[in-house]
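User: Modeling request: complex.
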Amino acid sequence: MNFLNDPINFISGWMRGLLTGWGLPDGLTTVIIYFIGITVLIVFAMVLDILLVWVERKVVARFQDRIGPNRIGPFGLIQPFADIIKLIIKEDITPAGADKLLFNLGPVLAIASVIILWAILPLSAKIFGVDLNVAVLYLVAAGALGTLSIIVGGWASNNKYALLGAFRMVANMISYEIPMVVVLLIPTILADTMSVQGITQAQSGMWFAILSPLALIIFLISAIAELGRSPFDLNEAESEIVAGFHIEYTGMKFGLFYAGELLHAFTFGGFIAVLFFGGYGGFFGLEKIGFLSWLNNPFVQSVVFLAKAMFGYWVIMWIKYSMPRIRIDHMLAFNWKFLTPLALVVLVNTAVLSKVLAGLPNWGYVLGMFSSNIVIGFITIEILRAYGRKQRKVEVKLSPHSEQNKEQVA
Amino acid sequence: MTADQIIFLLCAALILGSAMMVVTTRKLIHAALWLVAALFGVAILYAVLQASFLAVVQVVVYIGAIAILFIFAVMLTRREMLDKGAQTRSNWWLPALLGLLILTGLVLLIISQPAFGRTAAEIPAGVDTLRNLGTALVSPDAFVLPFEVASVLLLAALVGAVYVASGNKE
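Assistant: Request completed. Predicted assembly structure:
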């Protein structure tokens, strides 16, 4: 065992030797090592979060044809640290009618619901928190805590806008959880396991994004809805309810909500990478070639994983800053009448085809899966087109201009 | 005392304390949130028992769906739901006595079991409990009948909900 091939076990083995050498009992040593490991993981996620503030601001600036922060430090890299100092020294206000305990619990839960996701995020085959056999469901469970944080924060603020934001968030989360759960079953079926390590290893030959592109799109949409980012940012629609659930939060408490949102977006980028783009692996078998075996190094794998996660995060930002906010009835109709049925169809299709095509050679399996998705996508678009045409005809009949036209003609 | 026992005792204290708060706190939304804490404690118990699937489903279903719907309904009430009356009635001793009797009966029943006091065997490394659970749910000589009956029941509830929500369209 050496440091370059298995850094985490190397360090923990070294620390175990050190601590038992000091005469500590075995159980206590395990607790201490796990505690240190958890702390290191959280610190890594939070430090990454600080950098994400800079990434987000720079990228949004490019999307909006601006330059972004560029005054403090090279390329404005020190800007987020200045922001943090500003947030910490700002006055911390708790509104008079607020429920103090719950008001303070909201931001803590918001960041905690994201941090606990890092427990199952595999940075490489050797660097990960824990390899749960129910990791996919764990992702959904963590989302429930995120909803709870927004409800608690919105209710405890004693503000009608905050409460409205919280209501909208509940409607959003409860409905988009369903296509997300359904679509999470597709990587589970394809990999035959719910563990993220298993799903990653099952994609070493072929990414699930190619086997089931529709599942990827549905997961991306419901992930954005769960994040509450535009076009699903009804919970903080600034033109309607000022700032939504975090209207009363100031200083670092607001900062925690903000940091939680950014880290959540990046984490979901990571999950998109794990579930559909092969996570830290997925080199299409290249890593088995002799001179490319360095691709199996945990550090290389971590860099690959973070790059893929950053790509997913970039796509989420791209959508956020390009799409207008949708109305709440459109949002719910889109989910219940379109996304959920489509997710169910794709799930049934994948489940049946994975058994039917099991006997075929690998290329036949991939081709069958991919083309079935294309066919479903094509039929969906045709149905949508027919529906849109019908709607337009109804609207022409209803519009006042057409009545006037008729009267003028008559 | 092993680490498992310490975690169990902490968990039990969390569950019982939160459950106590659910019925004694005067603010409805606090009661709902204490309920979340109690349910979370049960999830930790499942995790300690190596029933990872049950633990996660406990959080998804009870906290993610049921508790959030509770809180959603309670939020519509604002804080005017503060109950100012007395929290006990004059005959509180009767249910307390009943509860004590039931507890004693349950404890006696558990102690009389042959498995009482034994440590659970470790699950062997190669066994995937989740896979076994899934197979048991759909295999004919295990639980396929209750599983299907439950799904038919849920489907009926779903159809009923759609019918009620769609209104009378005659």
